[in-house]
Write a structure and sequence with these properties.
The protein is of the alpha/beta class and 388 residues long. Helices cover 41% and strands 17% of the residues. The chain folds into 2 domains: 121 residues, 3-Layer(aba) Sandwich (Rossmann fold), CATH 3.40.50.2300; 237 residues, Rossmann fold, CATH 3.40.50. It has a 7-stranded parallel β-sheet, with helices on both faces. The chain has a 5-stranded parallel β-sheet with strand order 2-1-3-4-5, sandwiched between helices. Helix 1 packs across helix 5, helix 2 packs parallel to helix 3 and helix 8 packs across helix 10.
Length: 388
């Protein structure tokens, strides 16, 4: 597997065969030096619209079918800081004069390199070596995703309070909290908010070309919140692509996007993790949870998430005999524990009341730990971003 640099590159793969698209994605995850967030398109026509919304840095475009449309898509998607790679079958019409003319047209349309199918790691690596320099990234904010394989370990509490700490304790002008637990999310309730609009409304407005405003205020002034659908049945209509679109739009409008996720590593969650610069993995100091965390970390590594993108947090730590110490947890997991958040009773009280624990009396130790976490995850974040 390639060593990642901490950057996430968006990739669009265009091919009619889903098996081929999956194989292309697997090769890219093995060979690209950066982590990738991937979208698929079956036809070149759909790729144009997806490209406008997803803003990929790398496009792999099938050149075997609908050639006129493929060239049109290449012309539409070409950009100085974007790499376009043409996928072709070397056993079809190779050496044909018309084929050579088509390849010349493809180069003029913006295709920067050509890779034969089936893909080889060597060919793809050589094509990726021609990656142009990335354009300015100041127009996009940074995403921090909170995730655990297990519910009930305080992932939402940490996500909500970290968002609050980023807004109140750091030089961050605008923060948004996205609840990506689309079916039964409760991030808004942790802030004492009952939003009249939610993620489903936002997606409808995005589809209509509108910019959805988000509520702020309540007990967490300055934080915008995009809540999960109020009706769990509406969540069934949301796809991973929808969630990616919403996150990308929020990145364009906010300096920091804090994302709370569902405790399941499915396509919905992966669509968020892929687009997040930092993934905060939350665990607790008991043997069953740590065993699951070990499997989770191995899976994240196999998907291209290097250790530099992952922060491991032991939540609700108590210095008691039945709780594993952080150094023992680190030894079991074979990696350091970056943050330890103590168990403080006022945190539970605040959560029960729908009030941010960071603002509860008697929660100073918890607040200090969360602010330390916030400073860590915001490190190297953009110094400026769009205001809402």
């Amino acid at each position: 597997m390639a060593v990642t640099s901490g950057r996430t590159d968006r990739v669009l793969i265009v091919h009619p065969d889903p098996v081929v698209r999956s194989e292309v994605e697997s090769v890219l995850r093995r060979t690209h030096k950066n982590s990738i967030a991937v979208r698929h398109a079956a036809q070149a026509g759909a790729a144009i619209q997806i490209g406008r919304e997803f803003d990929p840095r790398i496009v792999l475009l099938d050149l075997a079918q609908e050639r006129a449309l493929a060239l049109s898509a290449a012309r539409e998607l070409r950009r100085a800081d974007r790499l376009l790679i043409g996928l072709f079958n070397p056993f079809v019409d190779s050496g044909n004069a018309s084929e050579a003319e088509f390849l010349r047209q493809a180069v003029r349309a913006g295709i920067g390199d050509f890779v034969p199918l089936p893909l080889s790691d060597v060919e793809v690596s050589a094509a990726l070596a021609a990656m142009p320099e990335a354009g300015p990234a100041a127009h996009e904010g940074r995403s921090i995703a909170f995730f655990s394989h297990q519910g009930g370990v305080g992932t939402t509490t940490l996500a909500v309070n970290t968002a609050l700490a980023l807004r109140t304790g750091e030089p961050v002008r605008n923060v948004v909290l996205l609840d990506a637990n689309v079916q039964f999310g409760c991030a808004a309730a942790h802030l004492g908010l009952v939003p009249d609009r939610d993620l489903g409304d936002g997606l409808q407005e995005l589809a209509a070309g509108m910019m959805f405003p988000l509520p702020t205020g309540g007990p967490a002034p300055g934080i915008a919140v995009l809540a999960s659908p109020l009706d769990p049945r509406a969540a069934q209509m949301i796809t991973p692509e929808d969630l990616s679109r919403a996150l990308i739009e929020l990145q364009r409008r906010y300096q920091i996007v804090v994302v709370d996720t569902a405790p399941v590593l499915d396509l919905m969650t992966l669509s968020v993790l892929d687009l997040s610069e930092t993934v905060v993995v939350v665990t607790e100091g008991n043997a069953p949870t740590i065993a699951g965390t070990a499997r989770l970390l191995r899976m994240l590594a196999s998907l291209g998430f290097g250790e530099e993108r992952v922060r491991l947090v032991v939540n609700r730590f108590r210095r008691e005999a039945d709780v594993l110490a952080p150094d023992i947890i680190a030894g079991q997991l074979g990696r350091p524990v970056e943050h330890v958040v103590p168990f403080i009773w006022p945190v539970a009280v605040g959560t029960h009341r729908g009030a941010p624990a960071l603002m509860e009396r008697g929660a100073a130790q918890f607040a200090d730990a969360v602010r330390k976490l916030a400073k860590d995850v915001v490190r190297n974040a953009p110094a400026h971003g769009k205001t809402s």
